[in-house]
Amino acid sequence: MTLSSKTSKTTSSSAQNSPANGNPAVWPDSLKAYVGRCFASVGPSQRGAMEKNLKKVITSAIESTSLWAIDWDTRELPLDGIRAVDDGEDMMEKLKTDAKKRADAKSDSATGTVAVGAIRTSPPLPSSYKAASITFTKSDQQYSTTNGQASSSISKATKRSAKWDQRSVEPETTEDSAKRKKTSIFADTNYLNSNVEQVRKEKRLLRFDSPSGNESTPTPVATPEYDTEPEIFVGRSMKLEKKYLRLTSAPDPETVRPLHVLRQTLDLLKEKWKSERNYAYICDQFKSMRQDLTVQLIQNEFTVNVYEIHARIALENGDLGEYNQCQTQLRTLYAMNIAGHPIEFLAYRILYLLHTRNRSDMNDLLIELTDEQKADDSIAHALQVREAMTDQDYHSLMRLYLSAPNMGGYIMDSFIDRERHAALEIICKAFRPDVPLRFLTDEIGFDSDKSCYEFLEKHALNQFIDESSLRLRAKDAYPTAQNNRMTAFKKIDIKGQI
Amino acid sequence: MAAYREQNALTQLLNRIAERTDKWVLPVVYTVTQELRIIAMEADHYIEDRMSGSSASNSAKPNKLEEAARTINRTLTVCLNDRNSSMQNSRKWGVYFIISLLFKIYFKLGTISLATSVVRVLNASSAAGDIPSVEEYPKAHMVTFKYYVGILAFMDEEYEKAEEHLHVALNNCHKRATRNQELILQYLLPTHLLLHRRYPSKAVWRTFPRLQIIYEELFNASKRGDMRTYEAALAAREKLFVTRRIYLTMLKIRTKIVRPRLFEQVYLASDKSTRVPVSAFRKGLEFVGIDVDDDQVECWAAVMIYQGQMKGYISRERKTIVLSNNDPFPR
Lengths: 498, 331
Description:
heterodimer, A: mainly alpha, 21 helices, disordered N terminus, disordered C terminus, B: mainly alpha, Arc Repressor Mutant, subunit A, three-stranded antiparallel sheet, 15 helices, about 5% strand
């Protein structure tokens, strides 16, 4: 790693201006001042670019042995390819400093907001290191001079980046560090408390991360290597299909597909899904599409469409984890008033909350339901499901299950077995002496006696079925049924996956 | 707005100063934080009024109350983390007051999760013996605290705990603090009904006319097993109950109390026969406007047996419900 290289000191002849010497110790003062001016004139995001340019200038000056001859005081700053416009990363820096200011002003939220700031700031910083190292490796290759030269400028850059690190970390180490242990719980609370707007702003910036939640992606908008429109990252790839790869560094525009290509991709994928039905492949492709959309900050009806389709396909295949990811994104998109099917997905959300038994979120959701929403069929259905589950009304529940609109049935699939065990326990407790298999088939929502029997078999209940009459001896079956129910209700998962 | 900013700044400053002071600073803290809450709400109103119309994204958002909450949260920390050796002079005496303020804000904002996390923090301190038990605090502080904690338990469907908390709150209320009593009863009444099937006396309705308007019709219908009236009354009050998070509890009452009571009426109407055909129950339900099939009736009956509101069993073969000789509908 170029970063770790130290400044090589030529202790000999410090006074001599040896042409091949890139050691800043023997740079003319005016040059040092020049470098200072250069860095002062650019925003923090363009440091990488400035370093690159400076390297060029200084190296060529050294090569032409004019290091001391050039009048650096009047020399123009090497601003080639450096944008003066504000870009995403500058916004990040601004937010960092804002966070810091807020930390100074408000002692109470210092831990909290700085925690926010710190969390947000630390990921981008290592990548600006990387940006620096990337640029330097390239320039090293381009102008392969003696080893020493590269190191000096790098160490300067390192030192400066390091200073940035410290500056944003600083507030944390002052007055509140002593209190941090005791107030750490409050820090959590404060984190939750932190200005919703602020968090949303930062989320917005980080949203161009791949949907898989990789937070160490630096702003791809920043680096001036992409000399196109400053604020929009536009991909250049024309390949319709693309395997999904988690982003660990700035995305390469050569691999990112622009919007019009993605539209074609979607059509292709729809066809492929219909014909091949290969879920692993489709899921992978959709993830890479989502990634491309995020990286290019495309948030429109097409994005909504992609997420919705992916969500539905995920549901069809019982992939609740993927569905939930899409759902989360969709909520944000709907909140931005982008057209889609918010009602359909709101109904899914209700069912999903039933699956995870998330009572508090459910309560919050119910409070916010408008009359208009409640009137919709799919939402009304979901609410009835909720009521049936609260009442332990298995009869209604199974009917609702078999008549679920859209893809709601798939979500219900994930908790229907659990409810079946609850129903069986109730039936075994209340009915005597026995019940026919047909009754069970109807009451626990199977469409055939056969599948019902298989279910009972799977859960050790078939032993209580009288083979000749095909009736279940309720009293005998009760302990097993109770056991089954208790086991089924033990597993409560948060992500919707077991 | 300016008033809010000033007050917020004042509170923050006071927080910092308070770190070095003893108990004497508390009255000042109380006043300042109280006012902060009120001014913050005013500020939010002000912002909301001006917001209606213009694009919301650029102008200020009504988040002053949230901000205030954070400031006051800091006050709580300041009170909790008092390293004073003598409890007499400690700032810890301010804890329950500040917490109550925070509760008021969180409940207003609807951020219940924040309220529960604050409680967790408090319980940690309490368990560690850091702060005196709540009974030792001024009654007023305790009452408010217990009230909110009671509501939290209520919302979590932990009705026994809710009853406990709300009872303490009610018992320690000042005789003439009727508004407070009313607020507590608003949650205590349904809890009592659900847990013990106990109804409030007429005196309650006389003293608290507002509660009468909310609950009397429902409770009376429940006593009679009158599903139809109950459902209608519930629908009429749906919005009110939903926002106060009581709706779910009222549904539970319907399942646990009203419907069994209805079945009981059918049982009584058939001369307390221990063998009542399912169709009889179905007809009974039809009579109050609930049209369902036999299977649904059996399901409801099964749930009642399972939950213990009815004693007996269902004979699928004979389509009859066989009730216990002895007290088939226990109270």
